[in-house]
Amino acid sequence: MKHEKGFCCTTVEHLCVSAGRTTILEDVTISLHCGQLTVVIGPNGAGKTTLIQALLGEMRHTGRLTFCDPQGRQGRLSIGYVPQSLHIDPNSPVSVLDFCGAMLSSSPVFLKAGRKMRQRVREELSQFGASDLIDRRLCDLSGGELQRVLLAVAVTPAPQLLILDEPVSGIDRNGLQVFYERLTSLKRERDIAILLVSHDFQSVAPYADRMVLLDRTVLCQGTPQEVLGSKEFQDAFSLYVPGRDNQ
Ligand SMILES: Nc1ncnc2c1ncn2[C@@H]1O[C@H](COP(=O)(O)OP(=O)(O)OP(=O)(O)O)[C@@H](O)[C@H]1O
């Protein structure tokens, strides 16, 4: 049965991460709805990257991460991930086709993709305006080009949750808008919950459905307007806003 859009939900409950005696994240509770873009913001060292690592299971944590369908049944959560950057050997001969083919088929990267796989990769890349990159070497791509390729791989097949860590570095203003518009189409057409960590909260705000202000714990969450207008936001970024009570 096809579910109604926006009704599936990934819930992060009471997530805590410690390193030795240091508590990096404490009691983080967030709901991430399918078809919505949730943007996590916070000052440097707030724990944004740690949150992503914990959600990906790369960092030990306590708390629960659950996925529920519209009937409230718990299911297995599939996650797609686009990292902030990827270290690629500048001499690596691996092409975009080699990389995507290996990711989509789980074959070793040295096995050349056949005609069918080439067609499939081209189709996936075309949805992100990246089909012309198919024969380029990965190491020759710009930051923005690489992000598009990684995004195409991360959403094939469509995960329930897509996590993006600061994917805008290396992308200019125009590229940034196109990128956010692509995310908007993605969440609508594929009904994916998207979690985006961003420093550029002003640019991303018009595209965000929800915003979470993090600093060790969740200080504030709600619509972008609610969060960006909150006292917690002002305090976290030490802002003085003329015309309002800054006490
Ligand atoms: N493995 C670790 N052991 C000890 N401390 C850690 C570890 N990983 C991160 N930290 C500390 O946890 C805090 C949060 O780090 P994190 O990188 O998650 O923050 P962030 O919000 O992503 O920061 P930025 O915006 O600067 O990238 C920092 O003070 C960092 O030094």
From TrEMBL:
Pfam families per UniProt: ABC_tran (PF00005)
Matching entries from SMART domains are given as: AAA
The yes or no answer to whether the keyword ATP-binding is present is yes
Domain of life from the UniProt record:
Bacteria
The protein's name in its UniProt record: Zinc import ATP-binding protein ZnuC
In its UniProt entry, the species of origin is given as: Solibaculum mannosilyticum
PROSITE patterns, alphabetically? ABC_TRANSPORTER_1, ABC_TRANSPORTER_2
Keywords annotated in UniProt: ATP-binding, Nucleotide-binding, Transport
